[in-house]
Every structure is written in C-alpha cells, then in structure tokens.
Design a protein that fits this description.
heterodimer; A: about 230 residues; mainly alpha; Methane Monooxygenase Hydroxylase, Chain G, domain 1; about 80% helix; B: about 250 residues; alpha/beta; 4-stranded antiparallel sheet
Chain lengths: ~230, ~250
C-alpha cells in the first residue's frame, strides 16, 4: 500500500516537473521570438523579450526554492533524489538558454536602425532546430525517457554545421566590405548564442540519463569535425 | 578481511516463523554497517545472533556460520560471556543502572575483576569522552544516572559498553526515543567510534541509515536483498525492491 506521505511527495514532484515544463516553454518561445524580432527588425518585440528575461530568472529561482524545500522536508533518496537534483540543474540550464535569447534580443535592438546585412536563413533554422530539440528534451526529462534523451544530442551536430557555414559566410561578407564588420560580428554573436543554447539542451539530456540510470555521462562529440568552437 | 563473516545463516523461531533465510554477509572492521528494512525483516534477529543474545529466545533452528575473526560464534564451545565482552550491545531504550553515573561505568569492569582505582577512573573518563558525554557530566559523576536526559542516558549506555573495551558494537535503534539533537550527537559519536571499532547499526529510519552507513544491507522478510556501500545504495540501488522501500513506496 502506498502511504499518504508518498502520494503527497509524488504530487510535489509532479508540481516541480510542471514548473519545468512552464519554464521550458517560456525559454523556447523567447528564443524563437528573439530570432523572429531580429529577422523582422521588430524593435518593440525585441525590447519585450529583453525585459521578459527577468520573469524567466524569477521562475528559475522559484523552482530552485520550492525544490529545495521538498528536498529538506521529504529527504528523498535514489531516483527521487536524482530527479529533484536534476530539476534544480535544469532550472539553471533553462535560465541560461533564456539569457542567450535575451542576448539575441539585445543585438536585434542594436541592429534595429541599421540596413539589413543579408536575408536571414541559417539563423532562423538554427533557432528552430534548437527550440525543437529543447522541447523534446524537456519532454524526455518529464517522461524519464532515457532512449529519447540519448538520441537528441546527435541533432546538435546540425546546429553546429549551420554555425560553421554561417561563420564562413560572415567572414566573406566582412572581407568583401569592411563597413559590414560591425553588423556581421553581431550576427556571429547571435549564431554563437544559438549554438551554445543547443549545447545546453545536450546538458539537459545528460540529466535525464542521470535521473533514469544514475550514470553521469557527457555526450562527448569532441572528435566530430563539425563541432563548433 | 571481514571482522565478522556470516555464511548461509538461517534461523527459525519456535512459533514457526523463519526469521532469517540463508544470509551471507561480510562485516568489515572500522566501518559502520547498517542493517535496515521494514519491521519483521530480521534485522534485530541478525544483530542478536552476533553476540548470541538469541540463546535466550525460542530459537528451534539455527544453521550456517558466523565467524568473529577466527572465533566460531555459534559453536557450543564458545564462551558466551567472553564473546559478549568482545561484542557489546546498545538497545533502543536506555537502561541505566540505579547507581551513580560513574558506577554505571565501573560496574561491569569490577564484575570482570578490575580493582585498580586509577584504571577504573581512567576507563570512566575515556569511555565518556568516546561517547561524547564527558563534557556534559564531568562535574557530576556522582549524580544518579537517572537524573540524565534520555539522550544522555543513551550515550551513558554506549559509554558503558565502551568501558569494557569491546571490538564490535551492536546498536539496535539506539536513537528511536531521542530528539534530533541527541540523535545527531549519538550519530556523531558513532562516526568517531568507527575509527577504532566495528559498528553494526539497526537504524530507526531510512534517513538515519543513509546518514550513517558505510555499508548498507537491506533486509526484507528474513532475506538479505541488497548490500552495497551506503553512497551507492541510497543514491542508485541495484534492486527495484530496495528502491521502492527507500523511496517510501512500501514499509
């Protein structure tokens, strides 16, 4: 028979997981919106995203605080302990991805009154891939789906490849006309932020594997030539 | 090498309940080995085999081997009094003798033939220090032991065991009646004691097991389900039954 204590503990864990889903959705949306604002040169939207980062930060601390209270009061062990530790870790990873979105929004604001450099193709694609990976990584964590979590990091290679293509393109644009250097550097930073965001999705998948199996593994792709800097 | 080696130990009480089923366990020296699990799992029975306290119970069958170093614990040739001096025990409820604090500690030694006053006084101080009680009682060693708080009485019982200089200390839920601060003090003294002694503890909660165990042995219905380092067992146990129990899904 499962005790009342266990049932209330399960409810708490569920609440924390739901908060992670909420934070994950906020971050995913911020990332897509920031790139959209950059592409559409929508300064108002960019400012909104920039300011919305504060809400993301507060949600992260709320999750940390509430999860710590559960750890203190329930004294969890085994999978429960690993899951709660990972929830705290995920809250941090998501908040950092939120910071990358904020960084992109800031660049969108800085580039707002300058003429477009080129039509944005690779950057929106990188954002879509990253947001999709993030969405599924959160799902795998909540469902404790180790198989799904193991598969997602390979997709990071596509983001890295796009980053490397864009890097070369931007270099060529800079070499062609030195007036482009400033704007091209900003675009390079945007793509770097997206590449870093995708790396953090990989960290989330590592936490899912840890929660499910107790194994702390790093999805090391250091031999892969497509890896970004 | 193990301080205590248990091989294929089975034990059955006269009412037909089989309390231990084919238990094999190596208990290392200078470590805290924790036996934990739900009530009726055989933890106390196993603990009591180690100093033959089960001799007094209605045991109709006991099979297997229990070695304390080279001593065959279960042999009828074994001197039980000598065995219990080597293997001391602290129970759930502190039972202090109706004497002074000091006499509680010297009583056992005097029965064992110690007459040297200096040796007795020295044993009082040493054992009280080891049980983390010395600073609290050094000014009032002649006060009745019953004047001590519950937590202090339990540490006095631990000191009484230590005064006889055992090699192994068995503790059966020694903090079950104590407040959190007294519990922390007892646990702290156990962590110091393990540097010199073999400690076998039946904890009063899974949390205490997790806090104290160097080696953790999960027992359920007379069987040993899983043994591992405490660090491993309480964060990532191998068996689903262990996981379900430590996560509070049954018990």
């Amino acid at each position: 028979m499962i005790s009342d204590t266990r049932e209330s503990f399960d409810r708490k864990i569920q609440e924390h997981l739901e908060s992670i889903i909420v934070l994950g959705s906020m971050v995913e949306q911020s990332l897509l919106d920031a790139v959209e604002a950059l592409k559409e040169r929508d300064l108002d939207r960019a400012r909104e995203i920039y300011e919305h980062d504060q809400v993301i930060n507060e949600k992260r601390y709320e999750i940390e605080r509430k999860t710590l209270i559960t750890v203190a009061t329930q004294q969890p062990l085994a999978t429960d302990l690993r899951r709660l530790a990972s929830i705290i870790d995920l809250a941090g990873e998501l908040e950092r991805i939120g910071d990358y979105a904020k960084g992109i929004a800031r660049i969108a604001i800085r580039l707002g009154d300058q003429p477009p450099l080129k039509e944005l193709v690779h950057i929106p694609r990188m954002a879509e891939l990253t947001a999709d990976m993030l969405h599924r990584a959160i799902g795998a964590f909540v469902q404790l789906d180790e198989e799904a979590a193991l598969a997602i990091p390979d997709e990071d290679d596509q983001v890295d490849k796009l980053y490397n293509i864009l890097y070369r393109e931007l270099l060529e644009i800079m070499m062609a006309d030195e007036d482009n250097i400033d704007r091209a550097t900003f675009h390079l930073w945007v793509s770097h932020n997206l590449e870093r965001a995708a790396d953090r999705v990989t960290n989330i998948c590592e936490r899912t594997v840890f929660t499910a199996s107790g194994r702390l593994t790093e999805f090391d792709r250091s031999d892969d030539e497509s890896e970004a800097f | 090498m193990a301080k205590i080696s248990i091989k294929n130990l089975s034990l059955e009480y006269s009412d037909g309940t089989e309390s231990l089923q084919n238990i094999s366990l190596e208990i290392p020296a200078r470590a805290i080995t924790v036996l934990f699990g739900p009530a009726g799992g055989g933890k106390s029975s196993l603990l009591r085999v180690l100093n033959r306290l089960n001799d007094l119970a209605d045991v109709i069958r006991i099979e297997g081997e229990v070695q304390l170093d080279d001593l065959d614990v279960l042999s009828s040739q074994t001197d039980v009094i000598k065995l219990r001096r080597r293997v001391g025990m602290v129970f759930a409820r502190p039972v202090v003798l109706p004497f002074s604090i000091q006499e509680n500690l010297t009583y056992g030694l005097e029965i064992a033939g110690e007459k040297d006053r200096y040796a007795l006084e020295s044993a009082v101080e040493t054992s009280l220090k080891k049980a983390a009680l010395w600073d609290e009682v050094k000014q009032r060693l002649d006060d009745p032991a019953t004047s001590l708080s519950g937590g202090q009485q339990q540490r006095l019982c631990l000191a009484r065991v230590l005064a006889l200089e055992p090699e192994v200390i068995l503790l059966d839920e020694p903090t079950s009646g104590l407040d959190p601060i007294s519990t922390a003090k007892v646990e702290e003294s156990l962590k110091k004691l393990k540097e010199d002694y073999t400690v076998v503890l039946v904890p009063h909660s899974v949390q205490q097991a997790a806090r104290t165990a160097d080696i953790a042995a999960f027992m359920l219905q007379g069987k040993l389900i899983e043994v591992d380092s405490g660090d491993k067992l309480f964060t990532n146990p191998e068996k689903q039954t262990t996981q379900d129990y430590i996560e509070g899904r049954f018990g």
